[in-house]
Design a protein that fits this description.
Length: 434
């Protein structure tokens, strides 16, 4: 009997252990967006030949952090390891940082000293080439360490100063580049581990490539000619809008006086790709314009390398005569997003969809769209069983970030839904505008 009881206990312990193993999970991915208000992170899981899928991670007061003091220290494109149980907030989050050999890493001030010191140096962007064209540190060249011709892009002089950077401390390509260069015999190496995110955080100019822009002359990219009207009226980049820097500065003053949100007319998406140019990328007008737009919050703003003079010299598409003065921006719909016009039509129909507001209690106190149900993002996963199964769910928040996270949460539950990826201003009476 004792032996039989022991067997039962061992079997029970084994079963409990198995249950524990199947419940606990580790998720590793790069941060796409962070909602401080909801304590929620959306990460992209996959890559390196695997399909990339979004995963929403909740946090709470019990979440432990390693490599970061808390949620405020995390952001795109940080790489993190998440420990959690299904449908539960993360028990721990580890920020994965790739180190460099001793004495190699430099910070933004040291990089600026290299770039302005007068001595010869070579600055290399170690991200994939397709990212280089859309934005890079001024003066950098593209050299992706996984390309077979990587070493051919480096100078012949093995004693030359080489500086590498990539997508930040959780991106491995700076370290990969340094190792390959060391193995090839280069002796004077530096790594700017803060990468392009660190450069942007310092609000320093980011350059975009003319060849890249020439392939993106469409309403999904905002191109601003910040020279004076006489210059832009003579000739300008095809599709550019004339917006002299003095006009941007005057708009800033109006925003301050009226205490309103700074925003380009017709461009509510702060992640919109905005390209500014003047005659040269060193022109005072373009540097001031870049500063204004970055201060407004347009994080994807870039300065066109070589300016309009370089554009003309390369024979790229231009127009003569007065440039347009009104921005026509068409935001590319993200997967799962709904067009604003369709959202309005369905909301006004009243009974065809279920609308969910995932903002905080404080935000909703000032206004809720007519017919919408309020479920804060951090509580959504716990109440999905209460959602109607016979209607599509439409989700919105203040600017689309939390709505996209909610979209992924409902997708994981098999609930048909779309989200509004727009900045929404809601009045007390339930009316709203984008």
């Amino acid at each position: 009997a004792l032996e039989a009881e022991m067997k039962r206990m061992i079997l029970l312990l084994s079963l409990l252990a198995t249950i524990g193993v199947t419940q606990a999970e580790t998720v590793k991915g790069r941060i796409a967006v962070v909602s401080q208000q909801a304590g929620t992170i959306q990460i992209s899981v996959g890559g390196e030949g695997k399909a990339v899928s979004p995963v929403v991670v909740r946090t709470d007061a019990n979440t432990r952090y390693e490599g970061a003091s808390g949620l405020k220290d995390l952001g795109p494109p940080d790489l993190i390891d998440v420990q959690r149980e299904p449908n539960r907030p993360a028990s721990s989050i580890k920020k994965i940082v790739f180190g460099l050999p001793p004495g190699v890493e430099i910070d933004v001030r040291e990089l600026l000293a290299v770039m302005t010191g007068g001595a010869t140096y070579h600055l290399f962007d170690a991200r994939p080439a397709k990212r280089f064209g859309a934005g890079h540190i001024p003066g950098a060249e593209s050299a992706f360490p996984k390309d077979s011709d990587f070493l051919t892009k480096l100078p012949e002089d093995k004693a030359a100063l080489l500086v590498f950077y990539c997508g930040g401390p959780t991106c491995p390509f700076t370290g990969h580049s340094v190792k390959l260069a060391l193995d090839a015999g280069y002796t004077n190496l530096r790594g700017f581990q803060a990468g392009l995110p660190g450069w942007k955080k310092a609000k320093l100019p980011v350059h975009s490539e003319p060849a890249w822009l020439a392939k993106n002359l469409d309403p999904q990219h905002v191109i601003l000619d910040v020279r004076g009207k006489p210059a832009s009226d003579q000739a300008h980049i095809k599709g550019a809008v004339a917006m002299p820097v003095a006009e941007l500065q005057a708009m800033t003053q109006r925003f301050i006086q009226q205490q309103t949100v700074a925003q380009l007319p017709g461009v509510s998406d702060m992640r919109a790709p905005v390209i500014v140019y003047a005659d040269s990328h060193t022109s005072k007008e373009v540097l001031l314009a870049y500063k204004e737009l970055r201060n407004w919050g347009y994080g994807a703003t870039t300065v066109l390398r070589d300016g309009f003079s370089g554009w003309q010299a390369a024979g790229l598409p231009e127009q003569t005569g007065p440039a347009a003065t009104q921005i026509v921006f068409e935001k590319k719909l993200a997967p799962g997003a709904i067009a604003p016009e369709e959202f309005v039509a369905l909301q006004q129909a009243g009974d065809k969809v279920s609308i969910i507001d995932v903002r905080t209690d404080q935000e909703v106190a000032s206004g809720l769209i007519s017919g919408a149900r309020h479920i804060p993002l951090e509580k959504l996963e716990d109440v999905t069983s209460e959602l109607p199964g016979d209607q599509e769910v439409l989700i919105y928040c203040a600017n689309g970030i939390r709505a996209e996270m909610a979209h992924q949460t409902l997708n994981a539950k098999g609930i048909k839904n779309r989200f509004l990826n727009e900045t929404v201003i809601i009045a007390k009476d339930g009316s709203y505008k984008f």
